[in-house]
Specification:
- The protein is globular and about 85 Å long.
- The protein has three domains: about 210 residues, Rossmann fold (3-Layer(aba) Sandwich), CATH 3.40.50.10640; about 110 residues, no CATH class; about 110 residues, Orthogonal Bundle (SSO1389-like fold), CATH 1.10.3740.
- It is about 40% helix and about 20% strand.
- With about 450 residues, it is α/β, with parallel strands linked by helices.
């Protein structure tokens, strides 16, 4: 699968020029047509901001935020059809219009600058999940090539786009083994006198490795922060009116953080134990954005449209988006959240998702072998009823004349050293040839502190 992502800025200065890429040439105002002819993308994604609406003579007639977005989408599509004569890409093109900040003549936009980053992270997470995980023919060894074109766009846009796409692909890297990024940028045009040809240069060519990190901010109410530049009276009004998250939503977000922390520490048992449903994550994220959009105001003053985003997004959106992707990956693997977990599912997660982390993977392999291998003899002491692992271990030790282990408090050092299979922290039972594991509820609070203290 081949995916193209670019940022789209002010097209007023774009002029037709000969582009060259992979030995082919094409005359156009941007690099996209030649890249499409050379690569034949499965999906083309264009990122822009609603500041482009300022270049449209209809901007003063808009009544709401949706009309503003429509102006930008219409402008980009018209340019591709009428200026580039490239209508044939329309069926595989997606335009995402996001947030800007600044004064653009007839359009003034107020709001926190990072809103662009978090909104694009959310939108691209959904889009990549739809492209990569809804296709049953796309196996985990399928080659995925993503071309990031940083030639155009306001300076912060290509920087944010590159960071976001890379972080999202890092998450998909837990499942897909062969993801490649090519970053392209054409020779400069502005400031040169009638250049004959612009080369489209590959300036980065790397393979993605799996990686996930998260920001451990447990206060869900901080998902939407009142914009700091509003007057104090308006801040107080919004503080009273804005949505109050329910306890069930706070618990879901806490579970999401525990799930991400389990991935971060490569703990396959706890990945499954804390696995949230993708639909629930998406519903919570949608609620955050719904409230965010409820506090976008649009007014007219001095022959100028003033748009104000009165709430600001933060890293909760990024955390939820990453967890959404990982939850879908586990669902695609047939892994479900359950209070009791088959040891075979733990092994499946360890072998497939943590394959690139040999130290952590081998650590878990050793722990699983200690539980189930018949030559160790411990499997004979696992019964049909749940018992703590330390009780089973001590029965084994008593039979073999070994010193008894002391039960009691668990320490974070032992918990992580044993990949979450610390003797006191889990319970085991056996049913036929299947061994089931579950987290010892007596130590759940302690484990939570280890993961997201």
């Amino acid at each position: 699968m081949k995916i193209y992502v670019m940022t789209w800025g002010n097209s007023a200065g774009w002029k037709e020029i000969q582009y060259k890429y992979n030995g082919k040439t094409f005359k156009s105002k941007i690099a996209l047509p030649l890249l499409e002819e050379s690569e034949n993308f499965d999906k083309i994604i264009i990122l822009s901001t609603y500041s482009l609406a300022a270049e449209n003579n209809k901007v003063l007639s808009v009544q709401n935020y949706s009309q503003l977005l429509s102006l930008v989408e219409e402008k980009i599509r018209d340019y591709i059809i009428n200026e580039l004569n490239f209508e044939k890409i329309m069926n595989k093109m997606q335009v995402i219009v996001s947030f800007a900040t600044g004064d653009y003549g007839e359009l003034k936009i107020q709001g926190k600058g990072t809103d662009f980053y978090y909104h694009i992270f959310y939108e691209l997470s959904k889009l990549f999940a739809q492209m990569l995980l809804n296709d049953n023919d796309l196996k985990n060894d399928h080659e995925i090539k993503v071309i990031i074109d940083i030639t155009h766009g306001i300076n912060y846009m290509p920087v944010n786009m590159y960071t976001i796409v890379r972080l999202i692909l890092n998450v998909f890297g837990f499942f897909f083994k062969n993801i490649k990024i090519n970053v392209v940028n054409s020779d400069p045009f502005i400031g040169r006198v009638n250049p004959d040809c612009l080369n489209i240069n590959i300036i980065e060519e790397t393979f993605i490795i799996p990686r996930v990190y998260f920001v451990n901010d447990k206060d869900l109410s901080r998902s939407l922060i009142v914009f700091k530049d509003l007057d104090n009276e308006r801040k107080r009004t919004i503080g009273i009116k804005k949505y109050r998250f329910e306890n069930s939503e706070k618990e879901l977000y806490k579970k999401t953080l525990l799930f991400l922390a389990s991935f971060y520490h490569k703990l396959p048992l706890h990945v499954i134990h804390y696995l949230p449903k993708a639909e629930s994550i998406m519903e919570l994220t949608r609620k955050i954005f719904e409230e965010f959009f409820n506090f976008i105001s649009l007014s007219k003053s001095d022959n100028k449209i003033v748009l104000t985003r009165e709430l600001s997004l933060n890293n909760h959106v990024e955390n939820l988006s990453k967890a959404f992707i990982l939850s879908l990956i586990l669902d695609k693997m047939g892994i479900k959240n359950d209070s009791e977990i088959k040891i075979s599912d733990v092994e499946k997660v360890n072998d497939h998702l943590f394959r690139e982390f040999q130290i952590e993977k081998n650590r878990t392999d050793v722990e699983l072998d200690n539980i189930r291998k018949e030559d160790k003899g411990k499997i004979d002491f696992i019964t049909n009823d749940y018992e703590t692992y330390i009780e089973i271990e001590n029965k084994y030790r008593k039979k073999n004349g070994l010193n008894k282990l002391n039960s009691g408090e668990i320490r974070d050092r032992n918990f992580f050293a044993h990949a979450g299979f610390e003797y006191n922290s889990i319970k085991l039972r056996k049913e036929g040839s299947n061994i089931f594991i579950k987290v010892n509820e007596d130590y759940e609070d302690k484990i939570v502190k280890f993961l997201i203290s």
